[in-house]
């Protein structure tokens, strides 16, 4: 009776491109015939199959398939190979700044929590690929994040000047990612800012509500449809990004879209709330409602107005009894 973990024969007789990397330990992609070699190459180049392995395991699998291909005289077409990914850059307008309590676990006052991008939100895009609506799938970053976040950079405005030219100072990271994960809303990032002068300036601008955007950049690996076609009736086509890379992210002064939000976490909040004199409840109604894309009034830059906004945010989230 055949061993279910080696369905095409024992490893002593049949070479498998995958000797058993997945959790079930089953050997996959037999390389005993030319047809099996071609099939193995086709399957491992499908993103859904490659996503089941680490980058190192995929490289080993492909190497074994190519070695078997030489033995059987199999030539691999360029179409089967993964093409060089195209690059993208996106930015999103903030829908407000929310200051959280130090009891949330970040008492250093240098930790910023923000959504790099929302999911499943059609956004009109005009770039090198055309004019279209783009929707980022909630699983788009899963494969990239499975490889870790150590190589993801954090830069202000993509490391560029306000005019879009390279900046030597901007090329220095302003922080390090502590956490990057998808949730029900979008791609959530938690970042600890450095103590450098530039990072200090960016962090102060976040506290004051002067920065109104977050941006991110990476590679496009898989889309549906794979190419953008012009619609005859004049309406814009919709492209869903199924797999994206993430090279870097960070605050930007020139957002293009709405839907992201940012939270600065400060250690001094408890002290501020304890020392702020009580105000007439009617004073809250005099504070303009700051919604997505609205202009923050100048008075929000004062400590007292920041506390008012903080208390309001707590009430909206059920975190305050007052």
Describe the protein in words:
The structure is a single chain. With 322 residues, the protein is an alpha+beta fold. Residues 78-82, 96-100, 264-303 and 317-322 have low confidence and may be disordered. The chain has helices spanning 34-44, 47-50, 55-72, 142-146, 197-208, 269-275, 303-316, and strands spanning 16-18, 28-30, 86-100, 111-118, 123-127, 130-136, 153-154, 175-182, 186-193, 213-224, 238-244, 248-252, 260-265. The longest helix is centred in the N-terminal third of the chain and has 18 residues, at 55-72. 22% of the residues lie in helices and 28% in strands. The chain is globular. α1 packs antiparallel against α3.
């Amino acid at each position: 009776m055949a061993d279910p973990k080696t369905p095409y024969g024992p490893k002593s007789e049949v070479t498998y491109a995958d000797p058993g990397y997945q959790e079930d330990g089953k050997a996959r992609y037999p390389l005993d015939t030319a047809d099996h070699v071609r099939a193995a190459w086709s399957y491992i180049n499908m993103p859904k199959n490659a996503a089941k392995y680490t980058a190192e395991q995929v490289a080993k699998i492909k190497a074994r398939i190519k070695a078997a291909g030489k033995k059987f005289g199999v030539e691999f077409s360029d179409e089967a190979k993964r093409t060089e990914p195209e690059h993208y850059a996106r930015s999103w307008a903030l829908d407000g700044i929310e200051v959280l309590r130090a009891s949330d676990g970040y008492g250093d006052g240098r930790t910023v929590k923000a959504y790099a991008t929302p999911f499943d939100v059609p956004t009109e895009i005009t770039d090198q690929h055309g004019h279209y609506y783009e929707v980022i799938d909630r699983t788009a970053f899963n494969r990239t994040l499975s490889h870790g976040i150590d190589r993801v950079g954090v830069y202000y405005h993509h490391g560029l000047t306000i005019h879009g030219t390279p900046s030597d100072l901007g090329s220095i990271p302003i922080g390090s990612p502590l956490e990057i994960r998808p949730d029900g809303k979008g791609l959530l990032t938690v970042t600890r800012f450095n103590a450098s002068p530039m990072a200090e300036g960016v962090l102060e601008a976040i506290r004051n509500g002067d920065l109104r955007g977050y941006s991110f950049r990476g590679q496009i690996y898989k889309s549906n449809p794979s190419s953008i076609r012009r619609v005859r009736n004049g309406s814009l086509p919709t492209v869903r990004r199924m797999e994206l890379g993430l090279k870097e992210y960070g605050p930007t002064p020139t957002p293009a879209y709405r839907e992201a939000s940012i939270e600065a976490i400060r250690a001094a909040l408890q002290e501020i709330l304890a020392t702020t004199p009580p105000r007439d409840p009617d004073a809250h109604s005099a504070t303009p409602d700051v919604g997505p894309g609205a202009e923050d009034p100048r008075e929000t830059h004062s400590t007292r107005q920041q506390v008012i906004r903080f208390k309001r945010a707590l009430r909206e989230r059920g975190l305050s009894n007052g």
